[in-house]
Amino acid sequence: MTLAVHTLGSDPGATAEWDDFARTTPGGTLYHRLAWRRIFAGEFGWETHYLGARDASGLAGILPLVRLKSRLFGDFLVSLPCVNYGGVVARNEAADRLLVSAAVELAGSLRVSHLELRELQPRDSAWPVRTDKVSMQGGLAANPEEHWGQLPAKLRSQVRRPQKEGATARIGGAELLPQFYAVFARNMRDLGTPVYGRSFFAAIARELGEHMDVVIADLHGQPVAAGILLHSGGRTEIPWASSLRSANRLGVNMLMYWESLKRAISRGSTVFDFGRSTQDSGTYRFKRQWGAEPVPLYWHYWLADGGALPRLNPSNPKYALAIAAWQRLPLWLANGLGPHIVRNLP
């Protein structure tokens, strides 16, 4: 059966077909849906190339690509930036190979330095691959009471401790984004990391409202821990979560995570994705205590010049001084500058 690659246009029928394919095909994630194309273009002004492989029966594969271009960090294609998952979703190997070939051809024509595919399966190719990151995922019981009983006694006591100190938790939608952002932005500054703008999270709420919840943990009436939950296909992910250092001694974030698990169960999820971590890091060990197990992540690279793998991440020693300087910025300045910098990072 003849296959051909096309670039997705704006035809309503084509967009509906794309989203249906991303939703129903194994390997498809919420991030493969076209809502993220609108978020990327609208919030960051990023150039997008959404490639589809088609045969006589319709779509056989999809590959969303986003181009990031800046003087600071270079010019490259990613599937997908800001999030943990992307890459090819295909019904068969032929469609997969054709889309990868088309992506390489596109990368060459755009003269980008590299192409990055964030995938869950290894490729049988000569492409270099990063495997230092894992996704931490755990199964969910049928109801909160059963899941609570499966947690270690020590962890249950860590959840109860902030409650004894007066901490409470609440779940909502876009109306809680200001409280989430106040916690998230301060924590990102403290970590030395530029923060996304408020409008990024507002766009997610606007585009994915039915799939999104915001969880807030309060101490004495003030938000001190917060996260965003995304639900789809029986899975819940917490891609963004933070807690204030001033509340860490009480473990208020433990209450926030427990409320997140309860919400996931109530939404019918059977898997909770705690997000990505470096093997054996502090966050890795934190997530393991909740019963999460590492799922390998494969970030595959096509390199135009055959050079070393890019290291556009905070663990790169070359950014150490910048991180230390960022941690000393006034919060208002970090929040003002952060969105302009983060638009250049994958």
CATH domain fold name of the largest domain: Aminopeptidase
Shape: globular
User: Quick one: how many beta strands?
Assistant: 15
**Largest sheet properties:** 8 strands, mixed
Key traits:
alpha+beta, 2 domains, 346 residues, 11 helices, Aminopeptidase, 29% strand
How do you describe this structure in short?
The chain is of the alpha+beta class and 346 residues long. The protein is built from eleven helices and 15 strands. Strands 1, 2, 3, 4, 5, 6, 7 and 15 form an eight-stranded mixed β-sheet that branches. The protein has a seven-stranded mixed β-sheet with strand order 9-10-11-12-13-8-14, with helices on both faces.
Reconstruct the topology from this structure:
Elements: E1 4-7, H1 12-24, H2 35-44, E2 47-55, E3 58-70, E4 74-79, E5 89-90, H3 93-110, E6 114-119, E7 129-130, E8 133-139, H4 144-150, H5 153-164, E9 168-172, H6 177-191, H7 198-208, E10 212-219, E11 222-232, E12 235-243, H8 252-266, E13 271-278, H9 282-288, E14 293-296, E15 298-303, H10 320-327, H11 331-342
Parallel strand pairs: 4-6, 12-13
Antiparallel strand pairs: 1-2, 2-3, 3-4, 3-5, 6-15, 7-15, 8-13, 8-14, 9-10, 10-11, 11-12
